């Protein structure tokens, strides 16, 4: 009886320590690289389109806390092979006020960009 109880406890502990599975390739979550803790900031749906030959992106953000948050972000523009096709962007900032939802718009600087990655961090 004790061995079964011990086995159940060990199984429960191991299940609680398991890391979550990685996001599905091509999903919105796979496009976001979190550089540190993003407590109370959620990334939502993303809209991607090609306008006048350039990739355009709009990323939804939501501050779930009642306090203001400063978010730092930059886009990396990638080609068909997954490697960067443009120079590295500088970090940009946006203030998300308490309970605010916002959208980050971006346009690829070169027409060769077919994919992107957004790197984010907060204070």
UniProtKB/TrEMBL annotation:
It comes from the Bacteria. Keywords: Signal. Pfam families: DUF1425 (PF07233). The keyword Lipid biosynthesis does not apply. Coiled coil: none annotated. InterPro entries: DUF1425 (IPR010824), YcfL-like_sf (IPR038483). Residues 1-20 form the signal peptide. This is DUF1425 domain-containing protein. It comes from Pseudomonas vranovensis.
């Amino acid at each position: 009886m004790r061995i079964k109880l011990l086995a159940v406890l060990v199984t429960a502990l191991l299940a609680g320590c398991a890391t979550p599975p990685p996001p599905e390739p091509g999903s919105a979550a796979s496009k976001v690289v979190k550089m540190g803790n993003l407590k109370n900031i959620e990334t939502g749906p993303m809209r991607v389109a090609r306008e006048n030959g350039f990739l355009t992106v709009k990323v939804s953000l939501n501050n779930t806390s009642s306090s203001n948050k400063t978010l730092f972000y930059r886009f990396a523009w990638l080609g068909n092979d997954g490697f960067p096709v443009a120079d590295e962007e500088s970090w940009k900032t946006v203030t998300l006020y308490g309970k605010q939802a916002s959208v980050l718009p971006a346009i690829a600087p070169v027409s060769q960009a077919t994919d992107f990655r957004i790197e984010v961090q907060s204070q």
